[in-house]
Amino acid sequence: MNHLTDAFSAPAPPPWKAEMWLRFRRLFWLKLVGTSVFTWLFFIGYFHLLRHPAAAVMVMPLTPLDHLIPFLPEWLPAYLTLWIYVGVAPGLQRNFAELVVYGLWVGALCLSGLALFYLWPTAVPPLTIDVSGYAGFAMLQGVDASGNACPSMHVAVAIFTALRLDDVFRQARTPVAFRMVNALWFLAIVWSTMAVKQHVVLDAVAGALLGLAFVLPSLHWRPTPHRVQILTNRADIISYQ
């Protein structure tokens, strides 16, 4: 009897923890499968345009800043984490309507990027460094070649994710550390695109502008956000613990 009393008298988790847990578990499998399918469809179009450009490919010019950024192969893991990062924000949408509208906005962003690659094929300058001795770079060069450079979709999708994820943390009133980690993860991805020489500065700037063109209106034209609520239902508290 005492154990039962203790279970029901246990303090409820802090409101932000309950809210984040609710967001994470709601529609989990739909979010996981939907994000995977969406990414797969994007790559079908991406690689088709990469291997079959519709016009002559323009090599992107280097800026003085590009000459100051050294080749830093240790940043490759940060570059690859984009494919985890892009799933976090949709995975924390609170309901089906928010998830669908999020998908429509990011889908429009990706289609716009593919349209730009079709109309204006670009590539980064050839590497003057032999990367064969660096782990992972042979695979990267074979899969994600130097084409489809501008705008950088790595940066475009990363900035879309960063601002939408920051909005989730703000709504849930999480500790500021969550927002700081999000910002640092975003900056690491952006820096890595140039540090591993997959993109030049102009690619990153164009990618940021493209991402902002979609994420800023997406923060206003969407389902009315639900107010963050404390989950007082005992079953929810027990399932959280």
TrEMBL record:
* Claim: Plastid is one of the keywords in the record: no
InterPro entries under this entry?
Aur1/Ipt1
Record keyword Transmembrane present: yes
One Pfam family, please name it: PAP2_3
Keyword annotations: Membrane, Transmembrane, Transmembrane helix
The Inositolphosphotransferase Aur1/Ipt1 domain covers 93-213
- State the source organism's domain of life: Bacteria
Q: Which residue ranges run through the membrane? A: 27-48, 68-87, 99-120, 145-165, 177-194, 200-219
Full protein name? Phosphatase PAP2 family protein
